[in-house]
Amino acid sequence: MTILAAAAPGPLRILATVLLPFAAGYFCSYLLRAVNAVVAPDLVAAVGLSAGDLGLLTAAYFLSFALLQVPLGVALDRWGPRRVQAALLATGMVGILLFSQAETRATLFIARAVIGLGMAGGLMASLKAITMWVPRERWPLVNGCFMAMGGLGALAATAPAEAMLHIVDWRGLFVGLAVMTGIAAVLILLLVPEKPAARP
Q1: CA 79 → CA 18, 27, 47, 113, distances in Å?
Q2: Could you tell me where the DSSP H helices lie in the chain?
Q3: Contact predicate 104/48, CB 8 Å
Q4: What is d(CA 149, CA 36) in angstroms, rounded to the nearest whole number?
Q5: What's the number of CA atoms in the CB half-sphere (13 Å) around residue 126?
Q6: How far apart (Å, rounded) are the C-alpha atoms in residues 173 and 175?
Q7: Is the pTM of this model over 0.90?
C-alpha cells in the first residue's frame, strides 16, 4: 500500500503524487540517454575506448531500450505504471552503478544495456499514468509538460554534467546519477497511489 492512497486525489495532489514522481523518472531517462557524449573523453582515457566502442555503448542503450517496448506495454497493462516503473528505475540504478565501476569494454557494454532496460519505461509508464489519473481534456497539456521534462534531462546532460566533472570524476558522476535514479524509483513506489484498472 502506498503512503497517500487513501482518498480520491485532487489536481494538486495528483501533481505532487503522480505527475512529479513520473516526471523525475523521465528526466533521468533522457539525462542518461545523452550523458555519454560528455564523459566520452574520460572513458577513452580510463578504459581505452575507440570511437567504435563509444558508438557500441550508445547502441547498447538503444537496443535494450527498444527490445523492451512490447513487453513493457503488456506489463503496464497487467501491473500498472507505478510498480513497473519503480522496478525498471531500480534496474537502471543497478546498471548505472555497474557502469561507474566498470574497468573493461565488455562491462561497460553490459552496464549500458542494463541502463537502457531501466530507462525503457520513462515515457510510456508516464503516459499510462496520465491516462489513469488526468482528465482526457488535459492530456495534451500534461503530455507536453512531460516532453519538456525530457528536454530538461537532455539539457542537464550537457553543460551541467560537464560542470560536475570539475568536481568529481566520471565514476563519481555516475554514482550520483544512480542515487538520483534510485530516489525517483522510491518516490514513485511510495507516493503514487494505486488505481484499480477499468474492466475491459
Answers
A1: 16, 23, 40, 23
A2: 11-14, 20-34, 36-47, 51-67, 69-101, 105-119, 124-133, 139-156, 159-164, 170-191
A3: no
A4: 19
A5: 30
A6: 5
A7: no
Between the alpha carbon of residue 25 and those of residues 30, 92, 124, 131, the distances in Å are: 9, 10, 11, 17
Calpha distance 64→119 (Å, rounded) = 10
| 97 neighbors 178 (Cβ within 8 angstroms) | yes
The answer to whether the CB of 132 falls within 8 A of the CB of 84 is no
By CB atoms closer than 10 A (0-12, 13-18, 19+), residue 136 is: exposed
For residue 15, the tally of other CB atoms under 10 A from its CB is 16
Q: What is the pLDDT along the chain (200 residues), one digit of tens a residue?
A: 444 444 456 778 887 788 899 999 999 999 999 999 999 999 999 888 888 999 999 999 999 999 999 999 999 999 999 999 999 999 999 999 999 999 999 999 999 999 999 999 999 999 999 999 888 998 898 888 888 988 999 999 999 999 999 999 999 999 999 999 999 999 999 999 876 555 44
For the record, the C-alpha cell of 103 comes out as 574497468
CA nearest neighbour of 178 among 85, 100, 63 = 100
